[in-house]
Predict the 3D structure of the following.
Amino acid sequence: MSATAVRFHDQHVDEMGPSFRDDTIAGLGRERKRLSPKYFYDERGSRLFEAICRQPEYYLTRTEESILASAAEEIAAIVGPESLLVELGSGASRKVRLLLEAVRPRRYLGIDISRDFLLESTRHLAADYPWLEVHAAWGDFSRRLRLPSGVEGRRVVAFFPGSSIGNFAPPEAEAFLAGLRRALPAGSGVLIGVDLIKDRRTLEAAYNDAAGVTAAFNLNLLERMRRELGAEIEPAAFRHLAYYHEAASRIEMHLVSRQAQLVRVAGRPFPFAAGETLHTENSCKYSVAGFQALAQRAGYRPTALWTDRRALFSIHYLAL
Ligand code: AVI
């Protein structure tokens, strides 16, 4: 393979599930309207998410990056150079850069739902790390994951940063981790970033940045419906809402209808009352002990933990 080549597996690495169209119709048809947050990530949404990560209020990214940078040698000792490093939801493949020099894995596989964005990011990665064999596979890793053929490693370390696990409800997170465990060979492990429970002000500010990037990210879902499904829906007739639901330890994001209105998707009418919401995301927050207990129920042994001084964020190594 040439120095900057990416071996791209242009195949779904998930099991094909319902489409954006089917899920939108089903989600808008529910008594409490909702849609999976995975649909945020078309190309524009992926770019907006990268911009969210740079907002001063969104402490998650910079805190996780500072933990990774200071723990890189310890992480390297656990991961080892022979592992295949698989990044789930690799996005801009930025965080893994903090580990690559220390770990020096022979092979890296990025998996992301946004195909073009994935290709662009992994190409940059391959150019910057000529000694690394870079693979990219396109798919929805939240469904049952199959590693593409040709990337089998003796040992796999799945890198799942960013607290993306928080976008599953806790029972789904447990099922997802249990499914991932079944897809990994013996001796493998999961290196996972998990956002921690903290004061409401810090949490709510992170999802209501002053520059309005999170609002644009949320509203992009409606623009995507227009672009891809020809939906008759006016994004300006909705507003962004994000708040901390303390009893459930989660941030909820919604799109609130500013007025009574009728939207149409695929010719079907969906009425919204004034103030009615489309629930677009949950972002669950954990205590360290709460997350470790969940990981144990999913069949892992939590063997290492790193946090920052203020205990804003945690990174766990879960051994199989
Ligand atoms: C990807 N995921 C972990 C982000 C989160 O914080 O739940 C997505 C996001 N939603 C709004 N801001 C960021």
Notes: The chain has a mean pLDDT of 93.
